[in-house]
Design goal:
Blueprint: E1 16-28, E2 33-44, E3 51-54, E4 59-65, E5 68-69, E6 71-74, E7 78-82, E8 92-101, E9 106-108, E10 111-118, E11 121-125, E12 145-154, E13 158-161, E14 164-171, E15 174-185, E16 192-195, E17 198-201, E18 214-217, H1 222-228, H2 232-243, E19 252-255, E20 264-266, E21 269-272, H3 282-290, E22 299-300, H4 307-323, H5 329-341, H6 360-377, H7 379-392, E23 397-398, H8 400-423
Parallel strand pairs: 1-12, 18-19, 19-21, 22-23
Antiparallel strand pairs: 1-2, 2-8, 3-7, 4-5, 4-8, 6-7, 9-10, 10-11, 12-15, 13-16, 14-15, 17-18, 20-21
Helix pairs in contact: 2-3, 3-4, 4-6, 5-6, 6-7, 6-8, 7-8
Length: 432
């Protein structure tokens, strides 16, 4: 197996690409028992005599390739599949994996990630390598696929998941909901959240350019969630104006009955802890919504370009602060530049390294780089460039070099040189 990304060398197989995942999941909260069947349609990039799927902590009982029972070997992180016949380069094939177990987070250099039990439910924290803790996958940021999930839980519980919610059926004390996503989704952006939830549309959404947003929360927190997310329609209108139309099929906001250290975004979805239902967390709401444009629609092909996700989302926080009557962007820029100047100058934004890919300096320096470009280009040219960026790469993959090209087209060699000073050198540039 060849690794797709040097930041996560034990994840992913580049010998094939996935077109779609169809997951049938049954989960029991009380016993933390997950039973699943994953049907995966893929295309071979080279001739295959075997291939790998990422799967962590769950036991595989059967694998079929194109309908035939197939040999497999399950390791602690990888399921190695050996089909009965060679798969030719360019050939489409289907893999069915039946598996079960008690899902749990996996340990990583970024902490524990993946499926997590809550006090009375569960959530998924997939970024960057948590997806294999709940379904077999080709866990690469550049291998996006369509997704369908059929999730069954005990009556009294509800599910929020990646995709558009469809039919819900009840049988024998169990509830099944289907979610479908026809946009290409990275495995780390697929999510399932289970709890004693109720879902309702957010007041003020679904009007004009604003998509219908839904709020999924425990009934006791529904009123607090509605208050906390009352600004979401205004955020979406601002982002539509500055970044272009909302790019996802759904806009779902989930609130857990537990406190969470940080919110988590997935494709068309974001989850917040009950501790985030406070005015001070408005910047986090803006951040996670902005990821629906930057990271979830315009996606990165490799983890070294993480600043294209986080720097843009952080800058969106500052834009919303100014829009909503808080600190203006210039004040945010001055504050965070001063804070970065007091920190070690040893981070290369264009390639921060795996240990520092989620360092706050990536977020803030990325946002400062964008503001420096805005000053150089003018507001009109800068936001024209962003709208062109999100339109040209809608549901696609980009690299930092792609953004360099966009900057040079918008502002010539001087703008490209300015960007390079922020992302290709460790010393923090001065603000001019």
């Amino acid at each position: 197996m060849s690794a797709a990304d040097p930041y996560a060398p034990q994840s992913g197989d580049t010998s094939y690409g996935v077109e779609s995942y169809d997951l049938s999941l049954s989960y029991r909260v009380r016993t933390n028992r997950l039973e699943g069947t994953a049907s995966i349609v893929a295309v071979a990039h080279v001739d295959l005599t075997s291939f790998a799927l990422d799967l962590v902590g769950l036991r595989t009982t059967r694998v079929r390739v194109d309908g035939s029972v197939t040999r497999f070997a399950a390791g602690p992180r990888v399921l190695r599949v050996t089909p009965t016949a060679r798969i030719a380069a360019g050939q489409r094939f289907e893999v069915e994996v039946v598996y079960a177990g008690a899902p749990a987070p996996r340990r990583s250099r970024w902490g524990t990630v993946g499926w997590e039990e809550l006090t009375d439910g569960a959530l998924v924290a997939g970024q960057p390598i948590g997806a294999p803790t709940w379904f077999p996958c080709n866990d690469r940021p550049d291998d996006r696929a369509r997704m369908r999930m059929e999730v069954t839980v005990d009556d009294g519980y509800a599910v929020a998941a990646t995709g558009v919610a469809g039919a819900t059926t009840r049988r024998g004390g169990r509830v099944t909901t289907v979610f479908t996503s026809d946009v290409p989704t990275a495995t780390y952006l697929a999510a399932v959240h289970v709890g004693r939830y109720r879902t309702a549309p957010l007041a003020g959404s679904g009007v004009g350019v604003v998509p219908v947003a839904s709020v999924t929360a425990p009934p006791a927190l529904a009123a607090a969630a509605d208050r906390a997310f009352a600004t979401v329609p205004a955020m979406l209108r601002m982002f539509d104006r500055l970044f272009g139309p909302y790019p996802q099929e759904a806009c779902s906001l989930v609130v857990t009955a537990d406190e969470l250290e940080i919110p988590l975004e997935a494709q068309g979805l974001a989850v917040f802890g009950m501790n985030h239902l406070v005015p001070a967390a408005q910047r986090l709401v803006a951040h996670e919504l902005a990821h629906q444009w930057f990271g979830n629609s315009v996606g990165i092909a490799r983890w070294s370009d993480i600043w294209l996700n986080e720097g843009f989302a952080c800058y969106a926080e500052w834009l919303w602060s100014e829009e909503s009557g808080g600190d203006d962007v210039e004040a945010c820029v001055a504050l965070h530049h001063a804070r970065l100047a007091a920190k070690p100058q040893d981070l290369l934004l264009a390639d921060p390294g795996p240990d520092d890919m989620f360092d706050d300096r990536v977020y803030k320096r990325g946002a400062l780089a964008l503001h420096a470009l805005r000053r150089q280009l003018s507001d009109a040219a800068f936001f024209d460039m962003l709208r062109e960026w999100t339109s040209a790469h809608r549901h696609g993959l980009v690299t930092t070099d792609d953004f360099r090209g966009a900057v040079e087209r918008a502002g010539g060699a001087d703008a490209a040189s300015l960007l390079s000073r922020w992302i290709d050198h460790v010393a923090l540039p001065t603000l001019t």
